[in-house]
Amino acid sequence: MSALRIHPRLWCVLVALSAGVGLAAPASAKPAAVDQCFTCHHDGGTPQAVAYAKDIHYLNGVTCADCHGGDPTKDDQDAAMSPAAGYRGKKIRKSDIPVICGRCHGAAMNAFKREHRLNDVADSLAAGVHGAALRNNESGPQCVSCHGVHNIVAVANPASPVSPGHVAKTCATCHSDAKYMHDFNPRLPVDQYQMYLTSVHGQLNARGDFKPATCVSCHSNHLVYPVKDPRSPVYATRIPETCSRCHSDAKYMAQYHIPTDQFAKYRRSRHGVALLEHSDLNAPACNSCHGNHGAAPPGAMAVAAVCGNCHQANAELYGKSVHKDAFTKQKLAACVVCHGNHGIMEPTDAMVGLEAPSPCAACHKRGGSDPAEKSIVHMRALLDSLSGGQRRADQQIAHAEELGMDVADAKYDLRAVHQALVQGRVAIHSFTVADLADAIHPGIAVLAETEHAGQEAVHDYYFRRQGLAVSTLIVTLVAVLLYLKIREMEKEKKK
Ligand code: HEC
Ligand code: HEC
Ligand code: HEC
Ligand code: HEC
Ligand code: HEC
Ligand code: HEC
Ligand code: HEC
Ligand code: HEC
Ligand code: HEC
Ligand code: HEC
Ligand code: HEC
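^ thats the input. predicted complex w/ heme C below
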């Protein structure tokens, strides 16, 4: 914090702009030449003044009067602290604080169109959820709640309450205080800080590694939106991008030796496409599997539970299957063993088999003594016979439809075949032939019927077409005979 970043001349304009009266304009990044408020109060041992001697504002020439009003050039207490000189007294309304700080850290600076990071702090605060809370309730968050007062230091200074090592605790002064938060929003959880401490992010942070996320990496600092607001960086469709800012940055993550492909894979996955391209909010974002504040990879045992939040039927069957205990013993991550984690694609029947790329092939081989071999072949045959049959029936019905036949009934029946296939692809998670057969067989039965119906319809068509040809022939014949007869009769008349 060496040089004053505001040009001295700009300072004069700025201070002149400010609402206060008689504010001295500091000339450079050092204490104001004349600050009788400070001098008298510091000498008198006023605690605020003692603290202020190290405050970044004092060191940059900001006087007590810049915030409290009054005349800092007067060494007489009454003259200095006179209401006529704009002195506000000690009672500063909390809702006025952003206005006071904002005179310098707010819109006033925008008039100069300078790219300066002190630009829009007060405006940002006002536009977000914290500003709204303050407007409704005097004890809502304002500048001093996070930065302190009279002892403000640069935000990068490790002593700052908003430095990466302290910020989570600072947010927690309110967000872990159930009684306080209740006045604003009784439904808002108050466990974020506790959860954060258990996360990989929080644990590394506690050890002094400030690269992992803190509250502000995910929520921003001044412009904090409610999490259900689509503008929030943690709104479902924006989370993957928010996490990927760090997790896809190979350079940033290099020291941790973990993959940085999560977002790249996720974006193309069934889940990523559903959420990011089709805005399907039922599909998981990073936090659906990793938690909001307890971010850690779900442990091997917890994966089935995480996926099962949404895929209940699959998880239940898997939980009762022979794989459950076998995988648990080997500390294998349940669903992830067959489906992957970030790059989950649409499953196909080819997943069931004894050759790669079927996931079964990793553990079950052909030609051995593995009792699963026969079952796997059988399962695949069941799936193939139903899906193959469905394809054939579809073709037949389409053909009959082209010929103009009424196939509504057959089409309706085919829906049951589709249903059986859907159920079979769930039932497979019990990994028994019997359960899969139970799901598939009703479909195969319907298939036999619809196939028959389809053939009938086509047969009918040709039968009717032959019938039509015969009757057309007869009608034509009769017409020709009639014509000949009439001609004959006309000839007779002429004679
Ligand atoms: C010559 C000494 C002197 C000067 C100059 C002076 N003060 Fe004070 N100020 C005092 C004393 C003494 C008190 C406490 C006695 C009291 O409550 O009246 C005090 C009280 C205060 C309080 C607390 C008010 C309260 O109700 O407890 C504030 C805030 C304050 N001063 C700000 C300022 C500001 C801002 C300036 C400069 C514009 C300033 N003072 C200049 C001596 C001074
Ligand atoms: C950057 C702005 C700023 C500066 C500079 C500043 N103050 Fe304050 N001061 C505040 C704010 C804001 C409050 C109210 C804090 C609150 O309500 O939590 C306050 C409160 C106080 C109080 C009342 C404390 C209380 O607990 O009631 C005193 C006394 C005080 N300031 C004295 C001073 C003195 C003396 C100086 C100069 C040495 C000074 N302040 C400089 C912003 C400032
Ligand atoms: C909810 C807590 C919170 C509130 C309220 C808050 N800040 Fe901050 N502020 C922060 C955090 C956290 C940082 C550091 C951000 C970072 O590390 O990226 C910061 C950074 C800053 C900075 C330096 C960096 C920058 O963005 O310019 C200034 C100046 C600042 N705040 C002023 C203010 C002022 C003025 C107010 C009131 C209008 C205010 N802050 C309200 C949390 C807060
Ligand atoms: C009279 C103008 C003025 C007022 C009023 C003012 N500030 Fe500042 N503030 C400054 C200046 C000048 C700096 C030092 C700029 C620099 O070197 O980055 C500064 C620096 C800061 C910083 C450190 C920024 C960083 O670079 O890390 C914070 C935080 C901050 N102010 C918060 C506040 C808060 C909170 C208030 C109200 C209680 C406030 N300021 C009121 C002028 C002001
Ligand atoms: C790694 C990113 C991340 C970090 C770090 C983080 N959050 Fe969150 N936060 C989230 C996500 C994601 C949500 C939930 C969004 C949703 O429910 O749609 C959330 C939700 C919230 C909510 C809304 C209530 C709730 O719990 O659902 C609050 C308040 C909140 N966070 C505060 C904090 C605080 C305070 C910290 C620091 C102790 C913090 N967050 C750290 C990502 C994060
Ligand atoms: C002075 C108390 C206070 C501090 C400090 C504070 N907050 Fe808040 N926060 C609130 C209040 C009050 C609300 C508004 C709750 C409401 O009305 O829904 C809120 C709301 C939020 C929300 C929106 C929750 C939702 O979805 O409705 C998030 C996110 C949040 N704060 C994050 C943070 C972060 C991050 C920090 C630290 C940088 C922080 N807060 C510091 C009091 C505080
Ligand atoms: C500010 C950068 C940053 C952001 C934003 C961030 N992370 Fe992290 N995250 C890290 C760093 C650094 C690590 C530490 C790597 C390690 O050693 O595990 C980490 C660790 C993790 C881990 C533990 C990995 C492991 O195997 O140890 C998970 C899981 C994780 N983050 C998930 C998330 C999720 C989900 C989000 C978004 C909601 C997110 N992170 C946002 C930086 C970030
Ligand atoms: C469908 C659930 C799910 C989603 C969505 C998900 N993850 Fe994961 N993630 C996992 C599982 C499970 C693991 C553990 C891998 C294992 O044990 O094999 C993991 C591991 C991780 C790890 C540890 C390193 C690694 O790659 O193994 C990080 C970091 C991570 N995920 C970040 C993210 C980020 C960032 C997103 C969003 C872009 C995300 N995850 C989305 C389930 C998910
Ligand atoms: C937040 C809910 C949620 C979580 C958690 C979740 N999923 Fe999904 N999953 C969905 C939704 C919704 C779809 C449908 C997306 C679509 O439209 O294709 C889906 C699709 C799938 C598909 C493709 C199904 C198909 O027919 O194409 C598979 C496989 C899958 N998820 C496996 C998993 C696994 C494994 C996990 C855990 C690592 C998991 N899911 C976690 C909601 C979730
Ligand atoms: C041993 C390998 C294996 C494991 C473990 C496994 N699955 Fe599957 N999964 C499959 C196969 C095989 C299919 C069906 C492929 C097909 O025929 O289309 C499938 C299909 C699916 C489908 C799409 C069908 C549907 O239900 O919509 C989802 C979703 C799914 N699995 C989720 C899960 C979840 C959740 C878990 C963990 C509880 C899990 N799977 C565990 C092999 C596995
Ligand atoms: C990570 C290794 C692994 C993968 C991958 C795997 N299995 Fe298994 N499977 C096992 C183990 C181990 C057993 C034996 C459990 C026992 O007997 O306690 C088993 C047992 C079975 C059984 C029961 C055999 C019997 O009758 O005793 C069937 C059926 C089965 N698996 C089918 C499949 C199918 C289908 C797939 C692929 C979709 C698959 N498995 C993928 C490890 C695996």
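The pocket of heme C (ligand 8) is lined by residues 240, 243-244, 247, 258-259, 262-263, 266, 271, 284, 286, 288-290, 297-298, 303, 333, 336, 341-342 (CB under 6 Å).
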